[in-house]
User: Which sequence fits this backbone?
C-alpha cells in the first residue's frame, strides 16, 4: 500500500475526466451511486453538499429536486466540466467550488449554507482511516439537524484478498490511491459522532452508509 497524497489523486482525476472512462462505465460504482442518491431522500427544502462531486452528475440531478446544492472537489478539471453542465441546464441553485475533505471550506464558506444532507460517492475511500475520521467530524459540524449523510463507497465487509480478481470491476486500485476502510471502522466513526447508522452491503467490498442526526 502506498502513502496518501492528495496531489497524486488530483493528477489522476484531472487527467481522467477528459477521457470519459471513470466510474460511470463500471457497473458496481454506478449502482452504488444510484442507491446512495436514493438514500438521500431529497426533499424540496434540502440543501445538499456533494463532496468529491467529480463532474457533478449527482449534484445536477439533486439541484432539480432540492433547494440548493453545493458540489466540492479537489480536481479543478472536473469542477470546470461540472460547471459547464450546470450552465447548460440553467440551474441557479447549484454551486461548484474547490474544496477537499481535509478543507471543505477552502474556497466557499460552507457555514453560510443550511446544509441538511451530505453525499459522498466513491470519494471518501481516497483518505486513510485517521483522515476519514477527522473529516467526518468536520463535516458533521456543517450539517444542520435533522441531517443525513450518505456514503456510497468502497468499504470492506470481507477480506479484500479474497476478491482481488474483481478489483477492476469495483473500481479499487488495490491500495495505490484507494484506502477503503473496514465497514465497522466507518460505522464506529459515525456512531461516535452520535449518528444513527445504517449499513447496506452492495458487494463484499462496497456498501452504503446512511447516518442520521435527529433534531
Ligand atoms: C470516482 S470520482 C467520483 C465522483 C462522483 N462522486 C461520482 O459519483 O461520479 C472520485 C472523486 O473524488 C475526488 N476526491 C478525491 N480525493 C478527494 C479529497 N481529498 N477531497 C475532495 N475530493 C476528493 C476526486 O477528485 C474525484 O472527482
Assistant:
Amino acid at each position: 500500500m502506498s502513502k496518501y497524497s492528495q496531489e497524486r489523486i488530483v493528477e489522476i482525476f484531472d487527467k481522467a475526466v477528459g477521457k470519459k472512462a471513470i466510474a460511470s462505465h463500471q457497473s458496481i460504482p454506478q449502482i452504488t451511486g444510484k442507491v446512495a442518491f436514493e438514500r438521500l431522500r431529497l426533499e424540496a427544502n434540502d440543501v445538499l453538499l456533494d463532496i468529491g462531486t467529480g463532474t457533478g452528475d449527482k449534484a445536477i440531478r439533486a439541484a432539480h429536486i432540492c433547494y440548493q446544492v453545493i458540489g466540492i472537489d479537489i480536481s479543478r478539471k472536473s469542477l470546470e466540466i461540472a460547471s459547464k453542465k450546470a450552465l447548460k441546464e440553467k440551474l441557479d441553485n447549484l454551486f461548484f467550488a474547490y474544496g477537499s475533505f481535509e478543507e471543505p471550506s477552502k474556497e466557499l464558506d460552507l457555514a453560510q449554507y443550511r446544509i441538511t444532507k451530505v453525499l459522498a460517492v466513491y470519494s471518501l475511500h481516497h483518505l486513510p482511516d485517521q483522515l476519514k475520521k477527522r473529516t467526518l467530524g468536520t463535516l458533521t459540524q456543517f450539517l444542520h439537524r435533522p441531517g443525513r449523510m450518505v456514503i456510497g463507497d468502497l468499504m470492506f465487509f470481507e477480506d479484500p484478498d479474497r476478491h482481488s480478481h474483481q478489483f477492476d470491476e469495483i473500481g479499487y486500485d488495490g491500495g495505490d490511491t484507494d484506502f477503503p476502510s473496514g465497514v465497522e471502522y466507518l460505522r464506529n466513526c459515525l456512531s461516535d459522532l452520535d449518528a444513527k447508522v445504517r449499513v447496506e452491503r452492495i458487494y463484499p467490498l462496497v456498501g452504503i452508509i446512511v447516518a442520521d442526526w435527529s433534531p
